[in-house]
Amino acid sequence: MRVHQRFVPALLAFAIALSTSAHADVGMTLKKLTWDPRQPDSTPYQDTVLDAFMGQLIAQAWTDMQPAIVQNVVKAVTQQPLGSGVSLYDVDLRLPAALSDTTVIATSAVIGALRLTLTHNVMEFKATHPLTSRDTDPRMRVTFDLAIDLPFVLNGNRHPPLDIVGVTPRAFNVDVKPLNASAAIGVAVSDIEALVTKSGTFAQRVAYGIDNSARGMTGTVTSYLNKYARQLDIPAGFKYNGGRVDAGRITIAAWQPKVLATANISVQAAWDGKYGVLLPNCDPLELRVTMPYAPPPFGQPKHVDGDNYPSGPSGSVQMGKDYACSQTIVGVQGVAGTLLYKENVVDPSHPREPGYDTTVRAVPVNWSNPRIVGDATRGKAQFRLDVHVGTHDGTQQRDRFQQMVRGNPGDPVERSNPAVHPATRTTATNPAVNVNNQASQRALSAFRTNAAGVNGALNPQPLPPGPPDPNKVQVKAPTPASSLGTRPSSDAGVAPPSALGK
User: Fold this and answer.
1) Where do the H-state alpha helices sit in 198-266?
2) What percent of the chain has pLDDT over 70?
3) Whole-number Cα distances in Å, 330 to 39, 314, 382, 467, 488
4) Are 251 and 31 in contact (CB under 8 A)?
5) Segment 203-249, tens digit of pLDDT
6) Under 8 Å CB-to-CB from 390, ≥6 apart: which residues?
7) 3-state DSSP call for residue 348?
């Protein structure tokens, strides 16, 4: 197994130190993936194992934490009586210099705890009792074991992505023995033993003392994580891709995109020249290509899709007897993506006055979906606009912002709920507005689009076979888009087609 170059000196030094110290079982693995969007579900991670590094880090943190813990535990057991007439004083607490064991406890997929175990902790003390005097107070020795859990959460916003959130201590295996003759007084010994071992009061006081050290403990471990952030963090050029907490091991995943050439998907829509400049450009079709955007988050089976939009608007031009508009959508060469578009009702008349409304239907020509970026035959898309002019009597109010979402290519235009234009869409993962679509917004505002204004059905002419039903494809929302102009898809999918009618 290959280990990252920069880790080698530190790992060797820590491994030597660990060989003479306590057992450590804090497994930590950093998994790195160079992701190829042409094979979006292939995740050949490379592992860097940091077990020795984490073990030594925690051992060093324990050395720093120990004095404060001793002080707070002694204060907790002496501040108040353990019971009626029984108080501890002259307390001497000795914790082991090294941890007996360290491990990872899994609570959920991304939540766990670092468990520090210390066996055979020794506390010697004198105890007051109603049957003894200051000179005859018994001196006793308590031995007990400690388990201190440091709960954590995997957090990609932290560096390294491990957030220590608290402390949960527990004292157990408590045993007490007398050390002087006075302690042999049966009643006194019995009362003190009951308070120390049976009532749980002593263990609660010890835990309380450790709780009072919680802020210092979490701060100390966090400080060491920050100190060695370079060794434990996501490497430069990689992005956090989730992780997993298992018994004994923390796994953190990171990925970077494979460097590949980019290419264009060319889209052209043409219509009969008798309608003139029916569309000022292709923006009203609201073209986009949904293609792989990021690898599946670690532990999940499916990659994340995102939307690539046209790089900018283009005007319509006359081509012989026809008019046509064209746009290009940038993508990664060789990556397959599904081209989506919208169809609109172009209605230049007043919604409350009788007049004409024009329905535009985009009919695919030589359709093949998905598109393959840069492919000579499958890297382009052509549409023929089917235009239908009808009349309306002005009795139905039309919502100019309503849009009709496409189903399968070639299906009848569908009546749907009002859609949200991508230029105004805002999500938690993508708050930015794509300036390229501001021009689309202005262009669309020149049209009144509403399925309710259509009188008469469009002709659903036969078309070549379309792609698989997009209703079954769920588009996930990833992290912010890359420099290629890609935006995460926030649509839940494509609306199902329905027949045109009132």
Assistant:
1) 201-211, 214-227, 229-232
2) 70
3) 19, 15, 16, 21, 15
4) yes
5) 999 999 999 999 999 999 999 999 998 889 999 999 999 999 999 99
6) 356, 357, 358, 359, 454, 455, 456
7) coil
